[in-house]
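Sorry to interrupt, but I need a hand with the structure work. Go ahead and set the record down below:
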Amino acid sequence: MTWLLWVSALSLLVWVWLVCCHGLFWRTDQRLPPRPAPRRWPSVAVVVPARDEAAVLPLSLPGLLGQKYPGTARVVLVDDHSSDGTGALAARLGDGGGLPLTVAVPPALPAGWTGKLWALRHGVELAGDADYLLLTDADIAHGPSLLADLVAAAEANRLDLVSQMARLRVATGWERLVVPAFVYFFAQLYPFRWSNRPGARTAAAAGGCTLVRRSALERAGGVAAIRGAVIDDVSLARAVKRTGGRTWLGLAEQADSVRPYPHLGGLWRMVSRSAYAQLRHSPVLLAGTVAGLALVYLVPPVALAAGAATGSAGAAVLGGAAWALMAGSYVPMLRYYGRPAPAALLLPFTAGLYLLMTVDSAVQHWRGRGAAWKGRTY
């Protein structure tokens, strides 16, 4: 048995394990749990950190202000020292009615904090004694009943944190190629079923739409407990779960990102700015990740092609079987994004792009550029 046969067999075994034993990560059925209306609707403050978001606010902020929430709710938008008039635009949009809106500017960014988390901390302070905090990004458009649905789900299921992975935009060719895979890879890294299981070590959230109980956030140490985190959503879920809180993560039905990524460069930066931080800046984990991505995603099509070219039927069959499992596991996510099933055959190519993005993230870190976002580098 040649080395190609051995490697293709190992890749197939890995795919069998991933599909059958890795938390059914490929399924897209993790949606908000049953949510009967509570007898008393708790108070909520929506906190929106925003830095240079004037281009997207007209598409996102009106949906937040127009929430049909039966209880007391308000919106706090923290203008993180924008240079494009974000704060003034938000104030004008707030004049149109809806939930009360407060626009504030935080003090200068201190050392040891990321800009988003410093803005969140300021917003949480301004939120007062609200029972719940909805932490959301400025580029997320919310359906009219989303806030009520999140609160009802938290109350009915005694959850301390309820988060939804917002549906990202898939309007351009690059978005259609890269975005569904981004969510698929995230779910593979943090299987939603495992994250939603009380007591499980896995914990994750999606920063674009996270409802958290104020008492649970305070018990976890507040925003200050994760002040330097680049991947703040996962860090928040871990902090809440570590202190006894119950968390839930699923796919969104009423939360959509309106931020456009028309070119590969923007998508590349979205992934690479945090990929190496996800690996805890470890060269060992980077090497293992690159090897793992190559074995799982690149070996199947290579084995199929090389086996067919060299007459190695075993390698071709094993590689083809692994590729089929890979593509089949990707189809549910493509359907969630309204993409055709045959597009799943392109997943090895997309995974190759993610491999290069991860390596580039490490290179930028080694060059001292770190995670860069809107004029700041961490």
Observations:
- The first helix runs from residue 3 to 21.
- The radius of gyration is 22 Å.
- The mean pLDDT is 94.
